[in-house]
C-alpha cells in the first residue's frame, strides 16, 4: 500500500530478498524495537515517536536499575541478618559454656537464662542443655544401656534363627512384643526424616536409631515400641552421643504426658484434651466455636503432635526450638505450641471445613517463619480464670476420679 501511494514500482521479491526483508523486521530485543531505526523500505520514525521511544527506553533503564538496587539491598540485608545471627549465636555459645552450664543449678531458673532460652539454644550446646533440663530421675547409666542393647541384639538374633514354633515368652517378652520390637521399629526407621537420608538403611545413623529403640523395648517391655518414638529418638541422636541420647529418651518418655500417650491411657489422654480445650476457648473463641461446629476434636491433630513432640509436623530446626522451650517449661509448652499454631493460621482455618482442617493440621506448611511462629506462641495466655495449666489439669483429673468412683457403669 505504501509503495502504491508513493508511486514506487511493485516488483516481486526474490526468495533471498524475501528472507532478508523478514530478517529486517525481526527485532533482536524490546530495546532494539524501541531504539533502532526502521528498515530502509519503511518510512523513518517521526520525531515525536522517536522521542517517545527514547523516553520509554530511559524509563526501562531506570526501572531496571531500581530492580537491581532493590535486589542488591535485599542481598545486603540478608547478609547482615545472617552475620548478626551468627554473632548472636557465637555470643550465646560463650554465655552458655562459660556462665550458665558451669553454674546450672543456680542459674537455670534465672530470668536472664529463661529469656536466652526462649531465643533458641545454640546447636553446639543444645544436647548438654537438654540432658540437664530433662534430667535422669531413672538413674540410667551407660552400662545399663549396654546391657539393654546386648539383650535386644540377642533377641534379634534368636528371632532370626528360631522358627515361629520356638518363639515363646522370653525374659518378659511375648511374641507380640517381639513383633513390635522388630517389625514396627524396622518399618518406622525407614520413615524417620526420609528427606535427610541419614536414618534409612545404609545411612550413618540407621544402626544407632535401631539400637536405641531396641534397647528401650528391653528396658521398658511394659511400654514396648510405639509408633512416633523413632522421631523423638532421632532428634536426640542428632544432638547427643548414643548412650546419653538413650538416657534422655528414656527419661523423656517417663514424663506423665508422654507416658499417658505412649501407654494409651485413654482416661488421662481425654483429661489432657479437656484441659487443652479450656485454653483453646480462652485464647481463640472464634476458632474454637468453628471447630465445635465442624465436630473437630483435639485428638485429630494433637495426638500426632504430642507423640512426636512436633518433630514430624514442623521443620526440623523449628522443632528443635520447640524442644528447647519444652525442656524449659515442660508439658504445658506442648499445648501452648499447639495453640500457637492454631492462632498463626486462625484466618485460614476458620474458612475450612472438617476435611480440609484435618488435612492442613496433619501436614503443616514447610516454610513456617520462625520468629512469626514464636510470636504467635508468645501471644497465647496459659491462664484461665486465674488458674494455670497445672491447676486446670489437676482439677479435671480430680473430677474424673470422683466421677469414676460415683458411677457404677464407669467403674465396671
From TrEMBL:
Pfam families reported in the protein's UniProt record: RabGAP-TBC
Gene Ontology CC, one term: cytoplasmic vesicle
Record keyword Cell inner membrane present: no
Single GO BP term: vesicle-mediated transport
Keywords assigned by UniProt, alphabetized: Coiled coil
Region (Disordered): 1-23
Protein name from the UniProt record: Rab-GAP TBC domain-containing protein
Sections of the chain in a coiled coil: 47-89
Single annotated GO MF: GTPase activator activity
Lineage: Eukaryota, Metazoa, Chordata, Craniata, Vertebrata
Biological source species: Callipepla squamata
SUPFAM superfamilies, per database record: Ypt/Rab-GAP domain of gyp1p (SSF47923)
Superkingdom assignment: Eukaryota
Residue ranges of domain Rab-GAP TBC in the record: 120-330
Amino acid at each position: 500500500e505504501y509503495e502504491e501511494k508513493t508511486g514506487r514500482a511493485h516488483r516481486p521479491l526474490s526468495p533471498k530478498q524475501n528472507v532478508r526483508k523478514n530478517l529486517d523486521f525481526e527485532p533482536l530485543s524490546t530495546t532494539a524495537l524501541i531504539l533502532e531505526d526502521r528498515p530502509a523500505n519503511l518510512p523513518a520514525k517521526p520525531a515525536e515517536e522517536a522521542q517517545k521511544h527514547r523516553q520509554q527506553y530511559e524509563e526501562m533503564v531506570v526501572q531496571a536499575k531500581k530492580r537491581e538496587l532493590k535486589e542488591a539491598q535485599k542481598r545486603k540485608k540478608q547478609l547482615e541478618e545472617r552475620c548478626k545471627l551468627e554473632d548472636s549465636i557465637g555470643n550465646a555459645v560463650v554465655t552458655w559454656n562459660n556462665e550458665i552450664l558451669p553454674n546450672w543449678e543456680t542459674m537455670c531458673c534465672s530470668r536472664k537464662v529463661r529469656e536466652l532460652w526462649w531465643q533458641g539454644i545454640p546447636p553446639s550446646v543444645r544436647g548438654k542443655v537438654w540432658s540437664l533440663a530433662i534430667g535422669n530421675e531413672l538413674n540410667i547409666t551407660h552400662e545399663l544401656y549396654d546391657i539393654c542393647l546386648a539383650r535386644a541384639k540377642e533377641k534379634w538374633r534368636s528371632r532370626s534363627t528360631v522358627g515361629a514354633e520356638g518363639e515363646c515368652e522370653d525374659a518378659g517378652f511375648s511374641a507380640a512384643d517381639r513383633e513390635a520390637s522388630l517389625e514396627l521399629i524396622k518399618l518406622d526407621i525407614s520413615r524417620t526424616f526420609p528427606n535427610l537420608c541419614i536414618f534409612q538403611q545404609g545411612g550413618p545413623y540407621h544402626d544407632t536409631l535401631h539400637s536405641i529403640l531396641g534397647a528401650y523395648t528391653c528396658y521398658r517391655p511394659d511400654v514396648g515400641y510405639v509408633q512416633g518414638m523413632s522421631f523423638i529418638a532421632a532428634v536426640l541422636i542428632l544432638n547427643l552421643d548414643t548412650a546419653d541420647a538413650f538416657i534422655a529418651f528414656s527419661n523423656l518418655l517417663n514424663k506423665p504426658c508422654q507416658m499417658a500417650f505412649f501407654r494409651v491411657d485413654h482416661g488421662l489422654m481425654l483429661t489432657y484434651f479437656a484441659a487443652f480445650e479450656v485454653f483453646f476457648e480462652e485464647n481463640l473463641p472464634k476458632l474454637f466455636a468453628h471447630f465445635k461446629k465442624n465436630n473437630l476434636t483435639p485428638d485429630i491433630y494433637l495426638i500426632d503432635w504430642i507423640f512426636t513432640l512436633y518433630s514430624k509436623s514442623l521443620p526440623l530446626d523449628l522443632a528443635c526450638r520447640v524442644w528447647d522451650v519444652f525442656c524449659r517449661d515442660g508439658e504445658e509448652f506442648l499445648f501452648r505450641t499447639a495453640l500457637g499454631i492454631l492462632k498463626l493460621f486462625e484466618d485460614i482455618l476458620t474458612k475450612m471445613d472438617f476435611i480440609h482442617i484435618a488435612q492442613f493440621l496433619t501436614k503443616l506448611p514447610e516454610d513456617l517463619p520462625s520468629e512469626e511462629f514464636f510470636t504467635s506462641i508468645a501471644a497465647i495466655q496459659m491462664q484461665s480464670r486465674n488458674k494455670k495449666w497445672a491447676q486446670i489439669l489437676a482439677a479435671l483429673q480430680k473430677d474424673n476420679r470422683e466421677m469414676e468412683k460415683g458411677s457404677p457403669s464407669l467403674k465396671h
